[in-house]
Amino acid sequence: MSESKIRNDICRYARSLFERGLTPGSSGNISVRLADGGLITTPTNSSMGFLDPDRLSHLDASGRLLSGDPPTKEIPLHGAVYETRTSATAIVHLHSTHCVALSMLPEIDPQAALPPLTPYQLMRCGATTLLPYFRPGDPAIADAIRKLGGKHSSILLANHGPVVAGDSLEAAVFNCEELEESAKLYILLRDKQPRYLTRPQIEDLAQTFRLDLPLDRFACTDTHDTAPCDHSGCKGAH
């Protein structure tokens, strides 16, 4: 794919996200990794709705700015994801409302921020992890991401927003949208005892679509016909 197309695609997807209210003001950022290890990223303090393809930041593999405006302050975050998740070629970081709200709820399990709600949540987002609060641009967030060892394609930053990787820009955008919708579903249903996917259903998805799902990260969702579940932390429907 040419660099020109990458630049135009970043602006096109960014505008779509902005116009649908998924990242307001000058929040959020996108990066795409080039074949030589360099990055094309959205600039700092730029609105995702009004990007200029020619002013996007072009960094070399060492992080040096080659052309364009100064890059997003979240470059350490993006770099750590690419470093540990080698299949990723694009990253989307938003301040989408429901993901931010989810990251602030007291009951959220950092190892699995969402229960297994829908098949597409698992297919696109896997087990979403929650990292503690870091100020925007804090280099320490890169160390926290490295400690995850590249096991998560979707990450929630507490009181901040989602970071989602994909093997293409389109995939990263779609995955981030799926995470936002899943967070919305959880917030809508969290007090209504919803039915979550069961362990056999999750295993079927993993086998059918060749998903690397850490089943032990999800709370028990098996059904129990007569007796209440005694599994610690169970959130399933019984």
Number of strands: 8
Shape: globular
Q: Low-confidence parts, pLDDT < 50 over ≥5 residues?
A: 223-238
For the residues shown, what is the average pLDDT?
92
* Major pleated sheet: 8 strands, mixed
Number of helices: 7
Structural class: alpha+beta
Strand content: 5-15%
Helix content: 25-40%
Compute the CA-based radius of gyration.
Answer: 18 Å
Strand order in the sheet with the most strands: 4-3-2-1-5-8-7-6
Protein architecture, described:
It contains seven helices and eight strands; from the N terminus they run H-E-E-E-E-H-E-H-H-E-H-E-E-H-H. By secondary structure, the chain is α+β, with helices and mostly antiparallel strands. The protein has an eight-stranded mixed sheet, with helices on both faces. A hairpin with a 5-residue loop joins strand 3 (57-59) and strand 4. The longest helix is centred in the C-terminal third of the chain and has 21 residues, at 169-189. The N and C termini lie far apart (49 Å). Residues 223-238 have low confidence and may be disordered.
What does this entry show, briefly?
The protein has helices at residues 3-19, 75-84, 97-103, 119-125, 140-146, 169-189, 199-208; strands spanning 29-33, 39-41, 57-59, 65-67, 90-93, 129-131, 154-157, 161-166. By secondary structure, it is of the alpha+beta class.
